[in-house]
Amino acid sequence: MEAGSPSHKNLIPSGNPFPSITIKHFVQTNMQSYSDQELVSGVLQGSSVHQTALYRQFSVPMFRVLLRYAKDKSEAEDMLQDGFVRVYRDMGQFRGEGALGGWIRRIMVNTALSHLRKQRDFVRDVPDFNVFESKFHTEEDFASNLDAQTLLSYLQRLPPGYRTVFNFYAIEGFSHEEIAEQLGISIGTSKSQLFKAREFLKKILNKSFIS
Amino acid sequence: MTEQQAQSPIDDLFQKTFENLPDSPAESGWDTPSDRVWQHVQAKISKPRKIWGTQSLVLIAAFVLVLSAGLYWMFSGPTEKPLAPPDVTPLEQPVVSPSSTSDLPIENQPVAAPKPSKGNGTANDTQGKPAPHNSTEENKAKPGNNAAQPLPGSKTTLPPNSTEAAKKKGEGN
Questions:
Q1: Where in chain A are the domains?
Q2: A59–B38: do the CB atoms touch at under 8 Å?
Q3: Residues of A in contact with B47 (CB under 8 A)
């Protein structure tokens, strides 16, 4: 992340910087970038420019992470909202020892876990796979091009426990011991949930390749 | 994350796909949050922090109230020391009817409850005050009044705030 040049910074007015520009436009135009230090100090001083810049810089990568934990886009947006409120609130706790993005990502994952824990028995076995298989009989699901969006749609249709354990183990790289500690389950349950998640995804992928 | 984990081809597929996404958001917008997220975040973080909350204000008001009540109680008490109780041993006496009480000389009639006098303690201080209520019920309730009545044949001891004592005190002065 490069620091923005001073001349660019002066172009941004104080107060509400872009009242008529939506965040989507904001993200796509990539108008200004700040270093981690600039963002942190600006947010701590209550600068709305830096608050907006922080959101603009990290909203898309964090939203991609949360989409993997959520069952749909709406739930991921709720997680993102709560996560960013925590980020702004706890910014004083960032010590600058690592990258700001890594710190924000940990907050987002913890926020996702808090949301998932509120669901009753979110880590549980789902014996009847056919119930879920029936949801995949659409052209979109069996698309041959396995891009991120398609894989995400498969992942989001896993039961919450399978999805969370698969995310932690296969994508985030946690061990079963760490997953068990994070989710408050046994190591055996973590292994079982991962095995079933893989089996489920295999079925879906095989079907998509065949079609 | 410390140990070498057993990765399956499915794990690799998902990991590589999600780790190698381009920095810019997709054209379709599947990975871009809607505008309402930022609006809600902005609304939450722009709320001014209350320095003095309602709860703390109520606590401070209660503290001030208790403190002022304590100070009032401490400084608004009687400035003069209360009179010492009469040095008379209470004795059992027969109940005297109001008619017989009125036959007693004025010196021996029961006196109203002692009040802190602002005057010089002369007999004039007692004048103009309402007459003592000599009902039998009240005499029973107040043993000090019974003690003021002399026993037949016993040495009469006057309470210090009686009219007789006031007279004697005035003569002494």
A1: 1-118, 121-211
A2: yes
A3: none
Q: Which residue ranges of chain B lie beneath pLDDT 50?
A: 1-3, 117-129, 131, 135, 141, 144
May I ask the CATH class of domain A121-211? mainly alpha
Chain A residues touching residue B1 (CB < 8 angstroms)? 172-175, 178
Query: Sign of the C-alpha dihedral, residues A159, A78, A149, A180?
Result: negative
Most confident of A24-38, A73-87, A151-165, A190-204: A73-87
Q: Chain A residue closest to B35 (CA)?
A: A23
- For the cut 80, the answer to whether the pLDDT of residue A95 exceeds it is yes
User: What is A1-118's CATH topology?
Assistant: Rna Polymerase Sigma Factor; Chain: A (1.10.1740)
Q: B interface mutation test: which of A75, A81, A82 has the most B CBs within 10 A?
A: A81
pLDDT per residue over B99-138, tens digit each? 555 555 555 555 555 555 444 444 444 444 454 555 455 5
Smallest CA–CA distance, residue A48 to chain B, in Å, is 9
Q: What would the pLDDT profile of A98-144 be if each residue is shown by its tens digit?
A: 899 999 999 999 999 988 888 766 666 665 555 445 444 444 444 44
Question: What is the predicted ipTM?
Answer: 0.71
Long-range contacts of B130-135 (CB under 8 A, 24+ apart): B134/B98, B134/B101, B134/B102, B134/B109, B134/B110, B135/B98
